[in-house]
Amino acid sequence: MASRLFTALRDGTWLTAERIRVYPLIVLVMSVLALGHMLAMSDGLNAADGQPIGTDFSNVYAAGELVLEGRAADAYDWTAHHDVEQAVFGPATPYYGWHYPPMFLAVAALLALMPYLAALAAWQGATLPLYLLSIAGIVRTAPDGAARPGPDFGRFWAVLAFPAVFINIAHGHNGFLTAGLFGFGLLLLDRRPVLAGLLLGALCYKPQFGLLVPLALVAGGRWRAIAAAAAAVLGLSAAATALFGPDVWRAFADSLALTRSVVLEQGATGWHKIQTVFAAARALGAGVELAYGLQAIVTAAVAACVVLVWRSRAAFEWKAAVLLSGSLLATPYSLDYDMVVLGPALAFLAARGLRDGFRPYERSLLALVWITPLVARMTMWATGVPLGTLVLLVLFAFAAAAGLGGIADLDRRGREPAFGAAGPAGPPSRY
User: Fold this and answer.
1) How many CB atoms lie under 10 A from the CB of residue 39?
2) Phi, psi of 141 (to 5 degrees)
């Protein structure tokens, strides 16, 4: 019995086409019902538990209100920002902090021009297709832009039903934007390096996830993309300065110490929500210094692996998966809704596996990664086991080992399989 179980896990035979269609559909229906119940039980702008509908989106809306009042710098003043949240959602509203760089204030202001629920719907409605289209492009587009056969992902239910999608919608968060920028940036890196660089540079709106991007691009010699990414960062920063004045940067910088102390080090967000090595260490009783030390070791190891894989001739899908999963591991602050970023990683790996064949245990690992956002928070809260962080570490190690393990074979062929190439011995990379 045990041997048959391990064989099924190794070969992935348990993950049949029928299960890929049916199980995600069940999760999707459950997610829709949960969202419907939340809305049905809400009172005005607040859910039944008294928190704003879309919880974290309330901080975006409040920051936008301050911008429209000509008080952009006050978005980083916790008292002023909380006053606006309480004015909109009621005096019992807890504080949802605004921690984004000034370039994101323009988006907040545009959304604040609408009533709150309309703004929330517009934000999720505009960014969800970006995530979905990036996945579609990854699984069905070759480097030259031609369509190619790809996995149907259970008629796309597996993509839409990915539990991180539901968590992101419930929190009104920006995971779809982050995942879409990552997904399209990597998808277009070979064919449209300048556009890809601009998209990857736009990740500066959430800078903790952009730590590894410059390392990967430099290691891969993607110089046009590097230049475009730098231009995007400088351009967005200059635009924010022109719109809101230089004082907004000073206010942002001044707020970072309080954000680091309260939100990260003291765990005001809740350790069970944060899926990082730092949070896992703090939840298990480690002091701040030890937690930072462990996070630094993991971040350095992840960065080194990213450089090695991106310098190698490994298939591009391995490089993409390493960068995407590594970006979540390299920061001390990443929540379960940020796991939407794993959607493009799963798509890259699934596309490669269906083209070249899956490695032992790969199908089962992809299924585990897919379901993890649904149970990571609950598992951490109930047992103290940092399931989300552990699964991220396993995925990263698997992708890095697979990418680096294929170097010898690739060197013998003298070829690097470009993204979407037919078969393991694809055409030589143009880089």
Assistant:
1) 11
2) -120, 130
Query: Which tokens hold the place of 148?
Result: 């190619």
Amino acid in position 30: M
Q: Residues with Cβ < 8 Å from 198, sequence gap 6 or more?
A: 228, 229, 231, 232
Cα 99 to chain centroid distance, Å, stands at 17
pTM for the model: 0.90
pLDDT for the residue 267: 85
**363 close to 12: Cβ distance less than 8 angstroms:** yes
pLDDT classification of 155: cutoffs 50, 70, 90 = low
Q: Can you tell me which residue has the tokens 């899956």?
A: 358
Classified as helix, coil or strand, 376 is helix
Q: Tell me the domain boundaries of the chain.
A: 2-42+119-237+261-413
Q: Which residues contact 382 (CB under 8 A, 6 or more apart)?
A: none
Query: Is the model's pLDDT at 56 over the cut of 60?
Result: yes
pLDDT for 126-147, tens place per residue? 999 999 999 999 987 544 344 4
Alpha helices in 277-361 (DSSP H): 277-283, 288-311, 316-329, 342-356
CA dist., res. 239 & res. 244, Å (int) = 8
